[in-house]
Specification:
alpha/beta; Rossmann fold; about 15% strand; binds beta-L-rhamnopyranose
Amino acid sequence: MALAKNGCNIIFSYGHDDKSAENTLDEIKKFGVNAYSYKIDQSNFNEIEGFVDFVKIKFKTVDILVNNAGICPFKGFFDIDRNLFEKVWMTNVESHFFITQEISKIMIDNNVKGKILFISSISAIVGGEYQAHYTTTKSGINGMMHSLAIILGKHGIIVNSLEPGTILTDINKDDLANDEKRKYMESRIPLARLGIPEDMAGPALFLISDENTYVNGSELLADGGMLVNLQ
Ligand code: RM4
């Protein structure tokens, strides 16, 4: 929404909620920009090519790529089977690797000095008892970002990660429905509240805007102070 508000034409992918996607598309279009949604199971490698082809059909080139898709089915380490691990890995890491490979080719072919932002997480830096699969993927995203900052930096493309803390979205709706857990997470945050998506807009916008001319290969933590709040 922040990108549309700043005049960007948008293509966004979504996983399953058609109604929510339709509402989001309507809201984006109110800013007078071209916008399209595309339904993709980002855990299914075979769907990635179709998404990239759609982008190429709708837009001549791409200036900004935000790799955001991610899932976190909370599960104990010993209860995570291979299917679940692979679904989380494909959605959170592998899909972004290959979508970024294709979109950065479009940027290079059109000589676009673009911006790429990975939505990583505080969970790239710290663990979670029920997130062993998820934290692995968020660290993996940062490792990918570091190398792409070198490889794509040579083409003038800037690549960074944003590391949200505990932000209220569908990803943790069930987990934070537990009052005790929610109160514990809130107690960890000096700003005394969980984040909301709008709190991520400012930091994200900076990293992908023309204002950012030299921050490349960086990880920007946006967690309200949670990580440093030991005592
Ligand atoms: C974040 C962090 C939050 C959790 C989400 C799913 O990285 O761990 O606490 O709610 O993941």
